[in-house]
Records
---
Amino acid sequence: MRPARRLSGTAIRASAASQEPVGNRSDFKGCTAIRPLSYKTDGPLAGFAALTGALLLALVLLTPRIALAFETFTIRDIRVEGVQRIDPGTVFSYLPVRVGQVMNDERASESIRALFATGFFKDVRLEVQNDVLVVFVSERPAIASLVVTGAREFSDEVIKKTFADIGLRESLIFDRSVLERAEQELKRQYLSRAKYAVQVTTTVTPLERNRVGLNIKVDEGESARIVAIRFVGNEKFTDAQLLDQIRLSTPTWLTWYTKTDQYAREKLAGDLETLRSFYLDQGYLEFSIDSTQVSITPDKEDVHVTIAVSEGEQYTVAGLDFGGQLLGRENEFAQLLPLRTGDVFSGAKLTSGQNRITQRLGELGYAFANVSVQQSLDRAKREVRFTILVDPGRRVYVRRINISGNGQTRDAVIRRELRQFESAWYDAEKIRLSRERLGRLGYFTDVRIDTEPVPGVSDQIDLAVKVTENASGSLLFGVGTSSTETLILSAAINQQNFLGTGKALDVEVNTSNVNRTISVSYTDPYFTDDGISRSFKAYSRVFNASELDLGDYRWRSNALSLNFAIPYTELDRVSFGLAAENNTLSLGERPPQRYVDFVNGVFDPVTGVQTQEGVGRSSSALLGQFGWTRDSRDNFFTPNRGRLQRGALEFTMPVGELRYYKATYNHQYYYPLNKDYTLAFNADLGYARAFSGSQYPPFKNFYAGGIGSVRGYRPSSLGPGRDPVDNIALGGQTKIVGSIEFILPLAGSGNDRSFRWFLFLDGGNVFPEGKIDTSEFRYSGGIGLTWLSPIGPMKFSLGYPLNGKPQDQVQRVQFQIGTGF
């Protein structure tokens, strides 16, 4: 048997220096480690020989690839030694040599490089035993655990996801270079939050079975604050005026929330673009930003920002011309431009005009229209002339509409809301309207409609409707409480998109000290193909007024109703229907006088003669119902723009004991200040009276106070009318209530609108039949939070009465489950 031998007397070997350095070299990456040569020389050539030997040794150590001279051989077999987790077959698959091939220096080096490049091994060595190629490997350790401590700015889940994207996570092979990249990325994330003093320390702990544990400790330090923002070169506008245009700022009482005093390169870049837009809107066409300088104090806590600008001169518009393919619509396009000859130039107006023309061309079927602008400057006169070049491209039509993302909702439910049809000319306005109609359904949290070109065809496109479904149904069983009711036992099935058909089914059983309800309702929004809806509703309700300190009585109401609604525009619907209702009053020992009068009649206190007939404890009515709704909101749950208007009229037919009519009107208006902040206005009006010679049922009164009305006051506690016996609120037959909300995103939520907070100002009251007294209006202000929770939209408020009277009942913390105001 021939003895085992190494190639050329030594093993061909490569080590992962980044993991376990060999000698003083940083990385071999396929280099061959050889046995040092020795030289022995006497006489006058000894010094020369020593120098030659040293140079040769240096050459050996520094040359990245050494060709070794050894006896070549034919590989009879290949054996792998040292593998633990990795299957030997994996090593064979990466080896560039096979049994039967001739092994030489080049193939040996190539084999080492191939195995080392996999990243699986920290050491690779080749030996020969009786023409058997033996591959000795030492595996890199696996990551057994990854722990992040000290991080507050980012959650552990966010950090670990960032690491995983880089290639650092549990069960993967540990690579120190990957760890270093992960550390640098984490520092970069902290730098974007103005935490320049952040320190990241990693401890690598060896574990049994060739594993390691990673502990990444983060010392965030304090965020660097912008203590000064200076402008250089500005003469037309003051520093204060320019500071009003940008978002970065020095510390104020609100920057703890807005974070605008924390410097970040991305924030500054955005502000510089805002600054350019501001100057362009004022006519300064040649404005430029010469330089920006950001300096940080040695303690990395204070930031100074200096922006140097060149303003140039202000230009007016000398003329507006059109060119290109105008389709005979030059006059129409000119009307779409908000910029006119003689105006001071405004970049925003010019861009708006371009967008309007592009949108108009899109409505005509030109999906890929291009509207560009050429300008000609007259610096002597400080005038600019524009030529609007219109290139409509080819008119296209929609070949196919593809729907995705609707795991539950049927395609037909989505398609019936679309106003853009297949095989019809492309219409940008109809596509926008389709997107808004789908958003108002309440079935989806996100709706996108993208255009996709048809390969090989220039006059056709496909539309991709992509929806993200919302949990539109719920099955609830619960025991709870609220700010107005002590104990609530409830069970409810609520499905606004029943079985994906778009039909709504609600079954509710609710019991508490105040309200007890059994209710079933069913709505088919497309009872007919053209969008006429039909609704059935049956309910039984019991209201215990004594629990709200509104009097010692109980009111039970049972009803059955049928309604139809007809759409007559894209935004408007009218409804009509009938409801049969039966009401029963149970009076306690000390009921409010108004209920005693309603049941027994009104008697003259002097003569004792009955002046008005009583209705009795039980009364019934057949109600006619008419309504109108106009909804242009951009979202059902979290609107940012648009209006919701609802008007309703309810009146009794000449059947039954009750004779009254009741009209209500509600108007909600959402005005976006920008993409983050919204102003919301709400007006809620009501007017009700009895028909001549009849009593108005007191249980049909309007009430004010509480969330959804004037917050900060106990629900249903407001009103100048008080019971003469119990001094409790009587409600009223006229209601005037208004609210203003300033809605803001929750800090750190990004584009997530499921959490938002708001500041509010409420005002209004209810009044008995007679004159409205504005001096009796109650006002309140406060702060609140809305949450699009899994069980439905929730609203919490903390309200403070602004002009409360001694008889008013205050309740500062209130909440509700529902939508809108």
---
Amino acid sequence: MLLTALLLAQQVDNQLMPTGQLLAPAGVVQELEGARPVDMKLSPDGRTLFVKDRDALRVLDAGSLKETAKVSSPGGASLWGLDVSADGKKVYFTNSENRLHVFSIASGAWTLQRSIDLAGPEGKGNSFPCGIRLSKDGSRALVCLSLNNTLGIVDLASGKVTSELPTGIAPYDVELTNDGATAIVSNQGGRRPTKQDRTAPSAGTETPTDERGVANTGSLTIINLDSKATREVAVGLQPSDLIILPGDRAAVVANANSDSLTWIDIREAKATRTLVVKADANLPFGSMPDGLSLSPAANRLYVALAGNNSLAVIENPAGKPTISGLIPTGWYPTAVQSFGDHVFIANNKGVGSRSKDPKQDGWNSHNHRGTVQKLTVPVTLSAMTAKVMELAFVPQILRAYERIAKSTAAPLPVPKKLGDPGAIEHVVYVIKENRTYDQVLGDVKSGDGDLKLCTFPEINSPNHHALAKQFVLLDNYYCNGVLSADGHSWATEGNVTPYLDRAFGGFNRSYTFGDDPITYSSSGFIWDRVLGAGLSFRNYGEMNYSDALPKRTYKEILDAYKQGHRTKFTNNIGVERVRRYSDLDYPGWNMEIPDQARVDEFLLEFREFEKSGHFPSFTILYLPQDHLGGPVSSRAHMADNDLAVGRLVEAISKSRFWPKMAIFINEDDPQNGYDHVDGHRSICLVVSPYARRGVTVTEFYNQTSVIRTMLHMLGLPPLNQRDASSNLMSTCFTAKPNLSPYKALAANFSLDDSDLKKDTSKEALKWFAIKNTVPIKRTGMKTEKDEDNLNRFIWHEMKGWKTPYPTQFAGPHGKGLAKRKLKHVPED
């Protein structure tokens, strides 16, 4: 099989992404160093391309794609929003901190000319501006004020917001009819809720949701700019980019979370047509159309499919639209522009996280490699469509959903087909925080590690090492995401929507940990699949924020644990369905809470399960202390996490449930840690009586491999295209069980150890002062600087205050790839 053969020993490179997707973009591709593009516009004459990056305006020559200017955007960039003046000499750019930047060119140089405050006439504070369109005469700007749920009218001469017109929830894009009389706004959160709706807050606004906690409406607001009258039209989920067709009669919007486009009659304010847009109509959710461009001369509509890394070509968009083919793009296309016989595509993640010809020694996972791609049309669509189908693993995805009606096969831990009997009845999924492979397992001689980069060797993490050695060592395992905001989505949804992937310019709507319903994929969470099949589920800590009650310090909670006393905790779980299946006494995120308190709470319930003989089919445990950065030393945080993992596995392996058990232990993300192969490479421990013993597995796996394997073990199909395209982790298991239990190893360091008490040198105090600037009240950190500071602090604390930081190995860089021979194996 193509997928299995290709991924057998291949590591992430310029073609294979950490998501398991392959890239072969058509046309000419230009990398933009450090870029993560979210929007793009051409100058009216078609000669200049303006790209909205996460923190800058990038200016490119449209002919050569050479970058001619890069101008910083103070305050980052919002999800969407870019427009160009009629003369091409001014660019309007919405940022993440409530402002509209105006860039202009003078004497051949682009500069930030002015910045307009968009607080509104009543000084409402943060409005998080997104989509923008200039009025026909260029005197006003219409701006989607996402947090205000309004369309702001900005007088550009005075720099004032003169009025705000109501829209739906989280307005995103705005377009004007040619006569300038009507504005159309796409609302990613949909309509305002009624009393009958389930709701959950998104950035402070109650938003309609389904029972899973996923935002379940999308809408367009049609506004008469003279009378200020508004009409609302229901469309698909997470409506994004929209266009108005010639004649002002109809508009088309891309519904990213519904894999569809909707046509709207503007005068009648009603939807007239919906077209599903996927690489194959039979695919499950995951194509995620999020960018549109109309070529009137060619009577053609181009659609960016973020999930399929492709461009869909739609003929006759104003008549009876049909999909004529697909064109391969870079990773995660987000914006499209067409001009004459050229099509330009902005790819949010581009070529992944490395350059073929790097100009520096190494990168961290936030030194992005976004791209701009240029095509000359017409193209040979049949060949390109076939290429997209191959790169997107479409046949493999469809096969992943095939179920055998009746099977006589012997039970296996990972059944060969859905419908075959399985040997596993209970799956425990442990989600931890932020470590790369080399940071923890770089000293294991049987794996591809780098001892120099190993921050927490065996003495610091004895249980991680023992489990990797006694069971399976995975040295080619990757996290799909970058930080906690997208990491927990990858870990629980197996996908990330464009709404979240565009947010790296500033997480102003949410840095979500179960607390923004617009974030979630329409395919739902892994527990939704489990519960939908009538199986049982229990959650311990995931998507939960907690505090000690009454307030206690880390040491006080730890001392209570040592004395056998429980600590009570508050809970704050944003997804109601998760809350219903959670142990509300188990604490979620808070670096002031030791993992020993978490495992103790789990074991209290586990003993009751032992007595009753009933244990959930699927269980999630959150053990976040390996995030580090809290009130004790890094080695103490890691020792706490390591001991918690060991105690958990020991208890389960000595229980009555062990013979039919599988435990998967992994990280939500690698943050911007260091690894000599790639900054996405991370830790995954596979523990089961059916797990192979004492072997190293080099097959490519990632977070979606784990999700697909866990579901498959329970006889359940994948969630969406991403996990369906991932390979099952069959190589980690054997048909013959070994029921030997695991014995937890004691920590080699005090769990309340603090280096600050031991070392008050000038260099140590400097690094402790830097660490204290890093916020730890939310999962992950808000800025890349915070993440870099924490990783540098951890390095110096563990390796020596004056030991040089390994910048050349920080983050995803691909330095260890050359010795790995990479090749395609044809489909058999």
---
Amino acid sequence: MLNDVRYAIRTLTKARAFALVAISVLALGIGLNIALYSIVYSVFFRPLPVREPDRLVYLYWMFGKYQQLGPIGFRQFEHFKDHKEGLSELTAHWAGAGRLTADGETDQIRGETVAANYFDVLGVKPLLGRTFGPADDLPATEGALIISHNFWIRRFNGDPNVLGKQVRLHIWMSERHFTIVGVMGEGFRGVAGPWTPSQYWVTFGQSTADMRRMRFNVIARLAPGVTAAQANSIVATQGEALVKPGAPYRERYLALPANRVRIPADPTASAVPARLAATMMVVVGIVLLIAAANIAGMLAARGVGRDAEMAMRLVLGANGRRLVRQLLTESVLLSAGGGLLGLIVARTLLDLFRKYTPQEYAVDIVIDPGVLVLAALLCGIVGIAIGIAPAVRATRKDLLSSLPGTNLGITRRAPSRLRHAVVIPQVGLSLVLLLAAGFHIRSLMKIELANLGYDPKHVSVISGALRAAPEERVDQPPPGHAERQAERSRAFYRRVLAAIVAVPGTGGAAITTRLPVNAPDGSAWNAVSLDAFLAGDDQGIPAGRTSVSTGYFRTMGMPLVAGRDFDDRDSRTSPKVAVISASLARRLWPDGGAIGRSIGPKNNFPMTGEAIEWYEVVGIVNDIDPIVRDRDRVPQVYLALNQEWWPSFSSIVARVPRDSVAVLQALKQAVLGADALAEVYRVQTMEQLIAAMLYPRRLAAAILGASGLIGMVLAVLGLYGVISYSVAQRVQEIGIRTALGADRRDVEWLIVREGARILVFGSAVGVALTYAALRVTSRFVALPEMDAGTWIAVPAILSGVILLACYVPARRAARLDPLDALRQL
């Protein structure tokens, strides 16, 4: 074997160009597969970073008509703690967002509120400090806070003296001071889910969360000798005591292995992403298949040139098995080189993924030993696959025609079936990838170029809050307390808007309780007109509800269709007013004349004595479209924020001349300078928000597009190589045809016809595979719109590129000198 390896290295070193091309082609295919598998493995398959993760289970409540899985309530949690046969320990956690302020800077971060034994049950130790103890589950003036390694590095620059530092954390609708008592290790980011890494942990007892009114995720460690299946049976039996008698639908409790629950808050939420990930794995697998077929064709062509070498070795006593082993050694070496270079490609792709992935989709991804084992297996399989056919062919030689010095081999044409059998699948599979990429890119383009009903360009979004004053943090507020808070809040917002408008070049600013990219889904209101209500029709039309300040529509680039904007006339004491979307106006008043009419929220199931609050319609604006077109346009109702009792805002929007860092910093300072208790935890542009929402679609389109282009290039190169080799094998034939009167066009057509035949068969295979794949895939994931233009344009473009690749060797063949060809006879 060592001799085979040394000989293979010498052989490939002599054919440097061939080896470099083969290794590079394989590196693309293997690198893509390693990178995507690393992402998929990190999200869906990597074991939890805890002690013995296979010994952990999640407890769930199954209820309702459709048997949904829900979290466990406090009463159920206490029940299973008292009856934990088969379970050694139980703990609870719940993920959420908080605002952490330290050294005058505020961050909005995600974390977990946990039971005090959370880290003990998981078996995780801190890098610095300590974890929670029983005393940390009791209310205290100074709460204990544990932070993640990532947050420690990013926010505190890895300061080893961070322990004991006091910070302020706003969580569960209130805020309090906490002391940092621990920093977790780099590999532990909580168990809330791959897309929601935790950056802090606090206990239920020291937060304002009332566990008795909550439902939370319960995780338990199995007792020694108990399997997950046995624990599931035990939990189901113990849970029967919790089932309410006479429930309309069956209720039960079950235990699921923790490694199968990627998102504890919604254990079924990973099903669709997992299917999408599987689809992407198939896509990049096709790229590797095309690359392998390409190299197999190159090896087959190279094998014909080594006929004399193989024949001489057979004559000298080598058996067929010996030659197969030698040639497979060469192909496996090529694959190993492609794998090593593929690791560099994968590392580069993962670095790009981390760099351009929005924070909302950030995943901790590494190329771990399991991925390296997969890469090694992949290299071995690919090496054998690309080398087996040429190796077997080498043992089936006609020795007399293959020996050097004979003329029998000169006139013999190498069989073309193997070459065609290798290239036709390349063409077909590349067409599958290009069609899939075309469908996704066309759908994405429709979204990107759509008129959203507003202008997101040069709109900045400031997210922040106004903390309660010390005198307002009381458990039993005195009379008029809420009104004083509301007035203080309104005065703050007025100062903020005035300060933002004063920033040079600002084209307007406003406050909104909901951004248009997060438009409500229609569950907020059932809008009914006063006319219809008096006529007895009180069903209402589902509509979204948003409260906005004066100038919002101008700032967002939403022109008024009719009526007026909110202004100073709309105060707390004036009649309530509303601006509605054009579609809602048409549905409520088909004959027109919505301005001046009254509209109100009518719930489908009103409480006894409920009175509808009527709003006068003073304006009509264009409808807004959802960024992701997975749902229909929803009519909107806009209310005047000045008339709200508690005008707390979700966001401040400002139209600025340019999206520069200096402008964003000026907007942040304008908010912070309006009040000593103001906080700003995020400043970004509207286009960045939209990009974050479209990121999954853009990523899928990018992967499909890149895979399709790589597949097409490989298929074209493979076909070009086959046609070029065919021309080299048919030199004598072409010379004879030319000598007998064939002109250049005849010769060109002779060569192009071979490529066209491959193109026709390959395209037929590709279209059939695409149709079959779409039929199968549609059962699992929502497919993009498949327009006729893509069905026509993509095969046409592929055909043009392939025929051009065939024309180059055909033109070279037509220029052959027939005398030179005839002299070789």
